[in-house]
Amino acid sequence: MRCLFVFRHSPWDGSRGAESLDLLLTLAAFDQEVAVLLLDDGVWHLHPGQSPGVLGLRDLSALWRNLPLYGIGASPWVEDESLRARGLQDGDLSIPVRRIQRKRLVAFWNRFDVILRD
Amino acid sequence: MAVLHLIFRSPERDWDAVVERIAPGDSVLLLADGVLGIQREAERLLAKGVHLSVLEADLRARGFRSDHPLIRVIDFDGFVDLTVAHRRILSWK
Fold it and tell me: Where do the domains of chain A lie, and which CATH numbers do they carry?
C-alpha cells in the first residue's frame, strides 16, 4: 500500500509535528511504502538552525535528517509555491528535497492509495 | 479513485491554493466556515468538475441554505458515508 504523509503545519504548533513524525516513522517501521509531502507551513519543518527546545518542544530536525535510517529513503516532496511564499529556496533547507509545482499535485494524489495528514 | 477534500476554512483565507490542488472528478465537502464559500466559490468549484457537497448543520448555523441542483446538502450520516467512500482524504483548515 502506497501512503502519502502530508505535513501542512509548522513544527512549532504544539505536539502536532512530533506526533505526526512518530506516526510516519511507525508506518515506515512496518514496511509501508511512505512518501512525504511538505505544503504550506509544513515546509518550516526543514528550516535549518531551529532551537525548539527554547519553547520546551522536541527537536525534530534529527528525525528529518535520519529518515533514510527509518526506511524512508526517498527525499520529501516540497511544493514550489509553498517555499516561495515563505521566501525559501530548496538550498536553504536542512535536507535534500524533491520539488513539485502546485499544478502537478492534482495528478500527484493519484499515485497513492492512502493520504495521511498532520 | 478520487480524492475527498474537506474545506474547513473561510473563503477569506487563501482558497486559491486549495482549489488549485483539486483535480476534476474529485469530491469536495464544505464544512465549518468553509460553507461560506457556497456564495461566491461554488461555481468555480463546479466549473472544475468536482462533486460538491456541503454540510447542512454548518450551513444552517450560518443562516444559509442551498437549492443548487449540483450541490448536495448532506447531514452527518452523509459525511460519514463520504469519508468511508474515499481512501484518500485531504483537510484544508
Answer: 2-117 (3.40.1260.10)
